[in-house]
Amino acid sequence: MTDVPYTEPLPLGPDTTEYRLVTSEGVALRSVDGHEVLEVAPEVLRTLTRTAMEDMAHLLRPSHLAQLRTIVDDPEASGNDRFVASDLLRNAAVAAGGVLPMCQDTGTAVVIGQRSNAVRTDGDDHRQVAAGVRDAYARLNLRYSQMAPLTMWEEVNTGTNLPAQIDIKLKAGNEPRYELLFMAKGGGSANKTFLYQESKAILSEERMLAFLEDRLRSLGTAACPPYHLAIVVGGSSADQALTTAKLASTRQLDALPDQGSPTGHGFRDRDFEQRVHELTRRIGYGAQFGGKYFCHDVRVVRLPRHGGSLPIALAVSCSADRQAKAVITPEGAYLERLETDPARFQPPVADAHLSSDAVSVDLDRPMDEIRARLSTLPVGTRLSLNGTIVVARDIAHARIRAALERGEPMPAYLRDHPVYYAGPAKTPQGRPSGSFGPTTAGRMDGYVEEFQRAGGSLVMLAKGNRSRGVVEACRAHGGFYLGSVGGPAARLAQECIREVEVLDHSDLGMEAVWRIRVEDFPAFMVIDDKGGDFFAPIASPTLTITPRPGT
Question: What pLDDT digit, counting tens, does each position of 72-124 carry?
């Protein structure tokens, strides 16, 4: 039989990850028909998965933390860049205590694995991994976010955070080694995964940069930058491009070669990565509220493609940068060593140039007085919020709209208090709150005009930029949108949220309407009552792309 040529689509260099041993039990090297086979007991996969989910909820990679510290130390970073980076470092230190997860959206569990023919299990790997996910989410102070459809329109929370996305494939060769990548992917960053179907006409540096500028401006800040940005150009199919982008955003493909070949393998274009990174710094979003640190870094992967098709995929990993690699070898099951002492990356407390002083706002005053106070402040002002806030998000908004359509009045709590778009993780014993950071504001945009016309939602608090319709509604009805820092959910729970109680729709679990009391809760004036929008100048494409000579 003639040998069929085969090219590894994503050829990687050696694995340089630093691992820690989780367990040496349940793995053994056996001889089967003259071949060495690694036997892996079912409990190994379950234990390894549970441990990975626990680590990722509380710990980050040291390289990610070092990048946050770089922002704080950079004299070219804006004050808001430094403020956000410092807040995220403080959040990491709180989360590392192992009680409060770093983000209230503890994510969808995603597990990608590959094993060679020389690895033998009970054949039910997916079930063991799923059991490990369930164990972690049941035991820890995490949030159940997975919705099961009962009909096309009705859903129910599964109450286990299952199902997980589990993809395990066969790896070429006979090395007795099982490799896994664990991810906890929150809705914010998952929703910023995009596929574009283009053509060869875009394959020049100038046109590609112009294309990417437009897409990056529309990306916005809702997924909690600074981002790890991944761009994939090409792919034998759309799903290959998307999968590769997800892997690249986790730094899983960092060891790809620097150039391609006629046999058609993927590679990284490090020179173009730098060009795109420079573009992200000039756009102006910064680390959520203006500056240069929209992205920590950029990966660009070029793949082969069908001559009539050019998929382009874009993906991000957000400030909750939750991934961990794992390997099972004859010596045991190992998990990537994440940083257990993030406090070593924090700047000195007395660092004077982190940000200017915040303006205090008393949220226990009547709503008209709160709005009058906010109306005196320019867009971009940093605020310190104190007092009572009502919490409501997607499903609660849908129920309130349905009540309005039945002729019922706007609930008094939405007329009398600011509304915070959020949903908490579990509350640890003895604490007032579980991790409780903001969710993406844009999902509630369709409710704003109707709610404000009925006298509610006149002061809103969440993360990310909003549509033009929200700006116009605030101008028409005297409303405001305040941007909260996306990411520091553990720090907010520990240092800012003093009381939490269910106020309405208790059957919705974390999506119920809550009443919370806050102290020194950080926010920024993003949209005011005069039509001002902090993000409007950034979202409009105004940059001139200058290609390098010869392109």
Answer: 999 999 999 999 999 999 999 999 999 999 999 999 999 999 999 999 999 99
Residues listed for the chain = 551
Tell me how many domains the chain contains.
Answer: 3
CATH number of 291's domain: 3.30.1330
**What single string gives the DSSP state of each residue in 498-536?**
EEEEEEE-GGGGGGSEEEEEEEEEEEEEEE-TTS-BTTH
CA angle in degrees (0–180, nearest 5) for 233-234-239 = 105
Residue 94 near residue 490 (C-beta atoms within 8 A): yes
Could you tell me if 41 and 169 lie in one domain?
yes
Confidence of residue 356 (pLDDT cuts 50, 70, 90): low
- Please tell me whether residues 298 and 385 are part of one structural domain: no
Q: What is the pLDDT of residue 349?
A: 53
Do β-strands 227-235 and 295-305 pair in parallel, antiparallel, or remain unpaired?
A: parallel
Answer yes or no: do 414 and 469 share one domain.
yes
pLDDT greater than 60 at residue 242: yes
> Where in the sequence is the domain holding 385, given as residue range(s)?
359-537
In the block, which residue shows the tokens 């105004």? 542
Q: Which of 113, 243, 128, 240 minimizes the C-alpha distance to 169? A: 113
Q: Which pLDDT tens digit goes with each residue over 25-62?
A: 999 999 888 789 999 999 999 999 999 999 999 999 99
The letter for the amino acid at 287 is A
Contact 111, 182 (CB under 8 A): yes
pTM: 0.88
The pLDDT of residue 545 is above 60: no
Residue 129 has pLDDT above 50, yes or no: yes
**CA–CA dist 547, 416 (Å, integer):** 53
Q: Hey, is 161 helix, strand or coil?
A: coil
Percent share of the chain, pLDDT over 70:
96
Distance CA 527, CA 340 (A): 38
What gap in Å lies between CA 551 and CA 514, rounded to an integer? 56
Q: Is the peptide bond before 549 cis (omega within 30 degrees of 0)?
A: no
| Three-point CA angle 491, 495, 500, nearest 5° | 100
What CATH number has the domain bearing residue 422? 3.20.130.10
DSSP state letters, 376-401: TS-TT-EEEEEEEEEE--HHHHHHHH
524 and 405 within one domain: yes
